Amino acid sequence: MKKEKVVGLEGSFAVSEAVRMANADVIAAYPITPQTHIVERLSEMVAEGELDAEFICVESEHSAMSACVGASAGGARVFTCTAGQGLELMHEVLYIPSSMRLPVVAVVANRALSAPLSVWCDHSDMMAVRDIGWIQMLAENNQQAFDLTLCAFRIAEDNEVLFPTMVHIDGFHLSHVIEDMRLPDAEEVAGFIPDYKHPFALDPDKPVSMGCYGPPFIYPETKRAQEVAFENVMPKILETWKVFGDRFGRYYAPVEKYRMEDAKIALLTMGSYSETAMLAIDELRAKGEDVGLIRLRLWRPFPFKEFREAVKGVEVLVVLDRCVSFGMGGPVCSEVKSALYDQQKKPHVVGFIGGLGGRDIPIEGFEYMIQSALEKVKAIERGEEVETEMIGIRE
Amino acid sequence: MKKEETDLFVPRLVTTEENFAPGHRACIGCGEALAVRHVCKALGRNVIIVNATGCIEVFSSVLPQTSWCVPWIHTIFENVGAVVSGIESAYKARVRKGKIPDKNVKFVGFAGDGGTSDIGLQALSGAMERGHNFLYCCFDNEAYMNTGIQRSSSTPYGAWTTTAPYGKKSIGQATWKKNMPEIAVAHKIPYVATACPSYPFDLMDKVKRGLEIEGPAYVHIFSPCPTGWRSPPELTIEIGRLAVETGVFPLYEVINGEYRLNYDFTDLKPVREYMKPQRRFRHLTEDIIDKIQARVEKEYLKLREKAGVK
Questions:
Q1: Is residue A92 less than 8 Å (CB to CB) from chain B?
Q2: Do A68 and A197 belong together in one domain?
């Protein structure tokens, strides 16, 4: 019998529990809505001695990530969390741990970007950092927020990985909502998260120079080395999720399917709206429609193989983006299309943009997208151009 | 006037060990490279150095070579204060948790004047305010030299730079040099000092003091730059001395808020002597130079007052 207890926790507290159980050494973070409950809870844990860590109350997110980089280079297990504008302020620094192989773990409570100011959720922040060389994964509920944060430490710090890892939880939808979840015993977790030792941390006994200057004669080789190393990440992610599943009973996959058996139409979502989408799929299935749901759990590295496998036999793929790439449509839709381009048999892909700045998408919204997509496919087959539709907009 | 400690025996007290290896790519006569060499001798090898982007990083770490005999990290331009905070915190946490033995490792930040008084000021201010145990060395060559002599807030009044050129409607730099050591003092940190490689033993003493003191320490190092100042490379040491002797860059320490003037001059040399070998000042008219002279004297008097020199 596994030792665990069922508790009611909001997503922020679930993440904090994972950081406590992982026994992080250094936390550097700056408060920003909707991530604040994480920094508050972690501060409490440190103040009460429940977590033996240095909590650096930095003066900006730029410094938060910089302090994380320093702490990670100094050999510590490191955690930070942020959201929206904060992630954008970090942007410059985010490239450093991925190119210097420093396994910082960050939780991002996804938030829309200004202007206008919005503290509510969409995926604009995470899409703006998709090319920075971090591992990126998404949770749909608080249990997953806990589980994936825990896994992130083990994946990132594996000496064959050593890449920073970002766990995305949707702001408010997860960060501020209390759900029941299973909290494993701390000892069980300790057995899952091995002691961490960076192979070349800064140490006067073994001096190294980190972050040297790379002129054209050597810069491309460093990037190629980074690319090769990043290609090796996927097996470790799969292995970690397998070990986690065997130990705790919850299994994760880069692409997860819901009622996809014989589905001709598939909806593709990421993050917390996946659970609403499931309800929509249930209703449509009850009406006899061949629909299913595909959820991207892993965003980087992009799970090409698993994704192509998931859409086999699908005729229409409906993609929901919670972000606008101005002049290009939705970023997820673009990437999904490019992932399918070389395939001999591939579905029609129809993109929608919705849920911007915390706007709700009700069950009917998902049903609308599916119906509308079928109309758009007819138009595509007639040779007409179909644009990405932004749903739920008051004209 | 205090005689500088250059009697024959003092140099022998300085280690012959080089912690900053030769063969780097600094310009001829670089005051900054010399200062880094002295600083590294004073630091010893039980340190971790965090370096901002800038001349030092570029001339010392061209892949696959390095001049650093101690653990050294460079990330970006404006975050030295934050990176050093992270490394110091990592060390504290790991020692406390029994993951590594306590070997009394010291943490040091290096940055230029731009990386300190402009783009890196916020991160440094944060680190000083939080009270991390670290030494920060600002190597001040009074402009963005690495990118080609653009003005910074540390560029002196009247100096020519490529973004503060003199012309029909410009005297060159139109603002007075930001007083970065005073900004450090305002953080109430335990140790602030100014230094110059023309006074190597004074410089090394200050680095050692800053390193040993518990809490944040700030040393502002005047680093003549022949390339950017348009001065003869063989005059680097002399220009550094003239900066001190004219009162343009006084050498002082502030220990727990107490000022100490290390080299006091009752008769300052005229600033003209300092400016003359530098072509960055050659366009200045007599009245501008007089204005600078007056300002230097006024500031020097204020400093003497703070140091309680009668």
A1: yes
A2: yes
> What is the least distance, in Å, from the CA of B84 to any CA of chain A?
6
Provide the residue type at B195 as one letter: A
Number of domains present in the structure of chain A? 2
Domain residues for the domain of A137 are 4-248
Same domain, A216 and A331: no
Domain co-membership, A264 together with A156? no
d(CA A43, CA A29): 10
pLDDT in tens, B137-152: 999 999 999 999 999 9
Q: How many CB atoms lie within 10 A of CB B294?
A: 11
Question: Chain B within 8 Å of A213 (Cβ-Cβ)?
Answer: yes
Give this complex's ipTM. 0.96
Do B64 and A218 count as a contact with CB atoms less than 8 A apart? yes
Q: Would residue A70 count as lying in a domain?
A: yes
Is the CATH number 3.40.50.970 carried by domain B14-306?
yes
- CB neighbour list of residue B219: distance below 8 Å, 6 or more residues apart: B39, B135, B136, B137, B138, B192, B193, B194, B195, B206, B207, B210
List, in order, residues 6 or more apart from A313 with CB less than 8 Å away. A262, A263, A264
d(CA B209, CA B70) in angstroms, rounded, equals: 19
- pTM beyond 0.90: the answer is yes
Kindly state whether residue A304 falls inside one of the protein's structural domains. yes
Confidence of residue A46 (pLDDT cuts 50, 70, 90): very high
**Closest Cα in chain B, distance from residue A199 (Å):** 14
Q: Nearest-CA neighbor of B179 among B82, B306, B266?
A: B306
Chain B CB contacts of A60 below 8 Å: 122-123, 126
**Residue burial B212-224, b: 16+ Cβ < 10 Å; e: rest:** ebeebbbbbbbbb
pLDDT reported for residue B4: 57
| 3-class DSSP state of A92 | helix
Report CA torsion sign: A142, A143, A149, A152.
negative
Q: Do residues A135 and A21 both lie within one domain?
A: yes
CB contact under 8 A, B90 and A68: no
Say whether residue A216 is in contact with chain B using an 8 A CB cutoff. Answer: no
Domain boundary among A248, A281, A306: A248
Q: Which residue of chain A comes nearest to B132, CA vs CA?
A: A56
